Write the structure tokens for this entry.
Amino acid sequence: MTELLNGKGLSLVPKTDAKQTLKDFKSDQEVRWCPGCGDYAILAAVQSFLPELGLRRENIVFVSGIGCSSRFPYYLDTYGFHSIHGRAPAIATGLAASRPDLSVWVITGDGDALSIGGNHLIHALRRNVNLNILLFNNRIYGLTKGQYSPTSEVGKITKSTPMGSLDKPFNPISLALGAEASFVARTIDSDRKHLQSVLREATAHRGTSLVEIYQNCNIFNDNAFEPLKDPEVRDDITLRLEHGQPIVSASKAVVRGDDGRISVVPRADVAAERILVHDAHSPDPSVAFALSRLDEPAFEHVPIGIFRQVDRPAYDVLMAEQLEEAVAQQGPGDLSELLMGGDTWRIG
Amino acid sequence: MTKQVQQLDRVIIRFAGDSGDGMQLTGDRFTAGTAEFGNDLSTLPNFPAEIRAPAGTLPGVSSFQLHFADHDILTPGDAPNVLVAMNPAALKANLGDLPRGADIIVNTDEFTKRNLQKVGYETNPLEDDSLAEWRVHAVPLTSLTVKALEGFDLSKKDAERSKNMFALGLLSWLYHRPIEHTITFLQQKFAKKPEIAKANIAAFQAGWNYGETTESFSVSYEVKPARLAPGVYRNISGNQALAYGLIAASVQAKLPLFLGSYPITPASDILHELSKHKRFGVRTFQAEDEIAGVGAALGAAFGGALGVTTTSGPGVALKAETVGLGVTTELPLIIVDVQRAGPSTGMPTKTEQTDLLMAMYGRNGESPVPVVAPMSPSDCFDAAIEAARIAVKYRTPVMLLSDGYLANGSEPWRLPEISELPDISQAFTTEPNGEDGAFLPFKRDDETLARPWAIPGTPGLEHRIGGIEKADGTGNISYDPNNHDLMVRLRAAKIAGIDVPDLEVDDPDGDARVLVLGWGSTYGPIAAAVRRIRKSGGKVAQAHLRHLNPLPGNTGEVLKGYDKVLLPEINLGQLALLLRARFLVDIISYNRVRGLPFKAEELAGVIQDVIDSD
């Protein structure tokens, strides 16, 4: 039987006794994002989070696709692979499936993960290989200079859509839940504490974890997530998702109606016991899915945190088990025996 | 009744029927008996891409051709001596290939008015004179089978299904094939359905007895075992040999094998075969698409595996960008292209050599990759090891160009001694190679120009690679014009400098003025044609290219040593284009793109014409 490894996401990755600091994870390369880009905050948060894991640095690999966010691996002094557009989940899958001793991270953006690489993303999620996927969502194409993206709102005026974009955007959380993801979370570039708390859970998760990070592109889509950062309103619209805790913002609460639907009501209007308690571990993803749809209309109330975190066998572990089982049943491979295995005959 | 036994030196049989009639299985079993008997042999399955095309129609005809002999042979044969036609469609589809005087064994039960109409026969060819130039053996195969199975607890339909085994039994009698093996096979195949096993064995034996007793067959034939080189042999198809070659390469390279693949005809059997050999540490990953298949293989290669992806032409088109990433990151990777008829979907089950230029140039930028092509089904084993040797030693993607003919065709294979297989292992880099303990991921080996291969998990060598141009040595992102020019040239020089053996020329008397050159699966028909020419006193030299990139160092010299160079290809002259450009030699091309291998007779005619022309 497969041993479930909940909370043991890094159990197969060797640890170090050496003390690590943020500096150990900074590469010697000059960071080249636009001044003011949200990517800087995420890079700093990741660099200062990694020492906490205590892993041997050489056993960490960052794999990325193409786009502004995908330059990320160059700035970390770990192993890194800056690949091609949309394919990072596929490349990381081959790496993680064959090397369970590595902590493998995928850095991607909304265009990379949801447009050109959409197929690889959904299949990585359903397969549940041990990967941490950080999806930097800035709702715009940055590196190609400002076209709308698959998460841009309908009617977005951009260089390629002067009369407004026509297509309905993806909701990355809904998509991930629909793709059978075992770990789905949302956080925001400007809240380092929250971002790192989500990364902590994501790395502890054995299987694929998808973390959507709202990231500001101050050049082509500035202030896209401003309501979540504005001190005037952010506490009212941010619904914190914490497992076992009621889902509330400063002034709002999530309740389940008699018809089973969930909705957001003024917190003052409901008794505490009527407020929906978050269950990220529920085998049934339907409530998590409903929560992912609460941000409609946009930014009236936005759930932030871990939507779903369930234990499911990881693909790399299952794959390794099949190899072990084959050896247990048939013995280790013997080339001579393999070649002689068919019907043979001798001449001379 | 004593029957006459006639000695033959070789026979070509074609089994043909509906795609649901089990012709491939029948052919496989006859081949196994023939291999066991010790003849040399070569096979050519030919089947539609549709799993069950409409019954009784021309597009639904599936066939299996087997050539066996008492001497070594090179091809599945040009024209059948015997056609087994299970229905009117099979007769009509194959009659054009039959030489006058050939035997035709027909299943008369299927020659109903309706079946005849389906394929446009206005009158029954068994009853008019249209088959007069052949020897027709009219056998009610279906009803004889049903009769033989009376007393079995089977529906009539199930009983009819065994008619292919009846035919196999009859042919086994006709050619003195051993029968024990087929009986054992049927017992094992239907171990869970003993009644079906018994019925098939009964049908098989009834077919044998029918040959023995009926007057329709007055002669049986013997083809003595062939005198092949001493050794242990087995029959093997190209796809199976290629899969075994990849496993052997993994063992000999001391690297775990990782296959990322997406099912595609005619390459899927390599995925199927490799998925059975997990005890060798083989990881097979059925990806969501072709791109993910090669992506995962490249990711695994970054982690220190022997990364392989298997596909056919349409898949290679999709993988191009990732292959380019492999070229620029200089990681070992094997791309197996089992070529099929194109463009686009083309004819998935038919063979072609039309992907050579795509393998060479089908990527953006200056993106050279080595190209290796096997020349026979069993040679797929050695070619896979050779592709792996180059990939690992030079840290580069390698294209391995098989094709549908090699993939599904089979021949006896003399098993190699494991101790004679080359050691193709290369050590990973574990120590810094720069000043002050720095690691320079693109500092090259002076001799091979290969870069160091340091895998994740190696302390002190943490580094980043990627698709953006890299500075020579450090591998840091670089847009410097001179650096790019240097890197483009270094990558090209690395591939051009790969050590490949010289091209060998077969010219027995050393005075031929015409050279026939080939590559890949055309070896058999070309060599058979060359034999014919020499037998009739003609002089012709033969050479066959296994390495298409880089070409052997003496290629130009060989080409220039002959008055005329003839190059048959199953494309419109792709290798000829490359050789003309490179060596300014006026190659004479011979091209046919029919989805089928060349015939020896056809090529002999072409060679003779070239010899005779001024």
Remarks:
- The domain at 22-224+314-339 of chain A is CATH 3.40.50.970 (Rossmann fold).
